[in-house]
Predict the 3D structure of the following.
Amino acid sequence: MEATAEITAAVDNVPALRFPEFEGEWVKLKLDEVAEKIQDGTHFSPVLQEEGNYKYITSKNIRNGYMDLSDVPYLSDEAHRNIYKRCDVRYNDVLLTKDGSNTGAVCLNELQEEFSLLSSVAFIRAKKDVATNSFIYQIIGGPKGQSEIKASIAGQAITRITLTKLRNFKFYYPSLPEQKKIASFLSATDKKIQQLSKKKAVLEKYKKGAMQQIFSQQIRFKDESGNAYPEWDEKKLGEVFEFYTTNSYSRSLLNYDEGSVKNIHYGDIHTKFKSNFDITKENVPYINEDVDTSRIAESSYCLVGDLIIADASEDYKDIGKAIEIINLNNETVVAGLHTYIARDNYNAFALGFKGYLMQSHKVRLQMMRFATGVSVLGISKGNIAKVEIGLPTLEEQKKIVGFLTTIDNKINYTSKQLEQAQQFKKGLLQQLFV
């Protein structure tokens, strides 16, 4: 990508970074003023098919920058025709998720075929004499557009953008030639981001499938002589772990700047810590220095190999989520509010195996089954102890850890590349747009 844009003098309604052949101020317009059509999909529930002539695209198929078509249902010809009369999405239209967990995800339609949309997805088609789809996509997907979206859904119990709000979003637009130049300039970065996003998704799907086969014992490893390892023992977590108490310090008593004791918060287990926890690769808060930690029992300080299990969650998919500590770097660490420490005092596990085991489908189903509560779910130490697991020999555990760690390393490397590309584009968008 040839960087031919230049820094301009600070002027209202003019971007900081601009191509030298363009001048004049940009004009602020409502999305409705630059769009020929803004429409969402069907609000009804058509009968879905595994095969057919017409795909049925929902919010789960829209990612930032590309369409994820790995799991798409189909509609009958009649159902599609009824939806398409109202929602005639075309190639290169802008697709935007307007409700759901990924509200605000945006991409360009890459399918050169007819398909139907669910109401959770809207499409935007630019007026050809005013704007381009590619430029609208860049605005909505950039910091300014995402900021508008966040502001419009703030405080709502269910994240949703109405078509009325969407039509009233206001952005600055240059002339058509400048729009096309900017969109073309950003296309190489978009292509790189799309490639890395798809690569990461493929690796994650491969890991998920591999884990299902490994922990259901459809795939078995062999020893160095090519012989099968012994059958797995059937155990309950309470038979192979001892549980230790944790502290109850709230997030308000933690900081990221200084301290002598670090604290693993259950919210971070849910949102950011990897299942095999290496403290040198994670951002872990300290307990504030003015907090009295003298009452923490010696047995409650974390050790390498400990499982830290979150006992509370707002949804089933995260209840009982756990991390295994594989490296503490000689730092002093405790586990905090809404967690249990599960410690292998019987040398039954190879380092790293527990983190993968707790992600397995069998364990996750049992954790969800034992969960109690309504708005906030919880799981007791006693119920965690009842969870049944299959336990291979230490040698087979090591083989499993090595195999899955190799996949994780590839995912992590791809994630870093993706984050760098996204940050690079974010910086460009901040300078190229008003």
